Amino acid sequence: MEYGILSCIPITVLIAGALLTRRIAEMMILSSFIGAVLVHKKLFFSGYIQMMYGVLSNPSYQFILILLTCFGGVIQLFQNSGALLGFGKVIFKYAEGPKKPLIVAWIMAFIMFMDDYLSTLAVSFSMREVTDQNNIPREHLAYQVNAMAGCLCVLIPFSSWTAFTVGLISEQGLTYADYVKALPFMLYPILTVALCLLLGIGVIPKVGLLKQSYDRVAQGGPVSFKEKNDMAIVNIEMPKDCKATSSLNMFVPVVAMIAVVLIFDNDLIHGLVATIAVQATLYLSQRIMTLSEFMSSFFEGAKSMANMAIIVFFAFMLSAANTEMGFFEFLIGGLVKTVSPQLLPALIFVVVALATFATAGYWVMQVITIPIFIPLAIVMEANPSIAVAAIISGAVFGCNFCFYSDTLFMTCAGTGVSNLRQIKVAAPYTLSAALLTTVGYVIIGFIY
Q: What is the distance between the alpha carbons of residues 23 and 15, in angstroms, rounded to a whole number?
């Protein structure tokens, strides 16, 4: 069945409802249910249940569920053991003032480039106490963490994102070398990484809600602000009686995680399990915790991720309904009927950006758009590496700016800033980078 314009209903309800009510969880459930009604019609009730089973059997969701459970436990153990407090004190010595903490966070993102979840959670949890002590609004840290994570995953060509994309373009006759050739043309991620640094050191001015956040803190307000009706997606707080321990109690497990991730082909789950084992060895041997306290802390952290796991669950259900209705094909097909070779890179960026924004699916968009746009570029005698760059730029923008993307939820977990507030803060900068990227691709299209 051709759904056409009807396929836009669930995503429209989600976006409008979330902006009006600021209740992302309820709107996500409602949108996924509307999707089930459209797909399964009279059998919507049983169809909705089957969609639930489908998500639970989805390897991607299984990965996220295990990751959230482990990361929640790891972070809570860092908190309760005093390791995070000790690490923060060391960093604070070298990161005082309004600029240095953001520069340190910017550098840390490069170290954690292998995975966007690793980057968002590790950088935000390890730096938020430092930025708090330096009166930097959490909103700024949240914007930088979310923006940097996905950008570096595509710009440093050794990540899981790169491996996935190279696998897809190889089916179109391209190679890893073509991906490397595309790197200088990945305008949006390059501009965003530069923008984060320039904003952090004060070269680019603070505008909009970010400026308001700085004004709030300057007037004695809290560094972390909770808007009315915002639901706490994740709540991991430092125990009041926590005492700082050696910074090595955080540094050693993090190094172990990075090493194991690299050894096991960038698999973050292997790294997290190894981290928990190292934490247990360190904390129990130093008698920082008893075994009972260790397990209680782990389960406390895992439990704190429950809300996020549920929201992501319904996001996967909505994505499944969108796929079934052909929403992506409808959106793309309506925008590429007539285009010149010179405007192809700009069109690819805009189309993929809109599609990814509407669906929050970087990986899904790669699967759908690469088989469409790479052959189109080859037939039109356009540069296929530039087409790859435009696809990736659009997908990264969509992930950065979609208020229900999984990476954004991870940033919520690490910084405590709601997803909608993050998007409002980021809007002037993200949209400016997108506009410059579009203009850049128009120019590139006529040059190459």
A: 11
Q: Which two tokens stand for residue 117?
A: 């979840």
Hey, what amino acid is at 151? C
Structure confidence at residue 230 as a pLDDT band (50, 70, 90): low
Whether the Cβ atoms of residue 30 and residue 17 lie closer than 8 Å to each other: yes
User: Which residue do the tokens 């909705």 mark?
Assistant: 48
Q: Which amino acid is at 178?
A: D
CA-closest candidate to residue 363, choices 192, 96, 150, 138: 150
SS3 assignment, position 68:
helix
Q: Which residues contact 10 (CB under 8 A, 6 or more apart)?
A: 31, 32, 34, 35, 38, 318, 321, 322
* Spatial distance between the Cα atoms of 371 and 148, rounded to a whole number of angstroms: 27
CB atoms within 10 A of CB 21: 12
Return the half-sphere exposure (C-beta side, CA atoms, 13 A cut-off) of residue 8. 11
List C-alpha distances in Å: 9 to 119, 169, 326: 34, 32, 12
Look at residue 234 and tell me whether its pLDDT is greater than 60: no
Range of weakest confidence among 71-75, 143-147, 307-311, 351-355: 307-311
Q: Is 21 helix (H, G, I), strand (E, B) or coil?
A: helix
Residue 339's pLDDT is what? 72
If you write DSSP's letter for every residue of 50-108 in order, what string do you get?
A: HHHHHHHT-HHHHHHHHHHHHHHHHHHHHHHTTHHHHHHHHHHHH--TTTHHHHHHHHH
Q: Is the pTM of this model over 0.85?
A: no
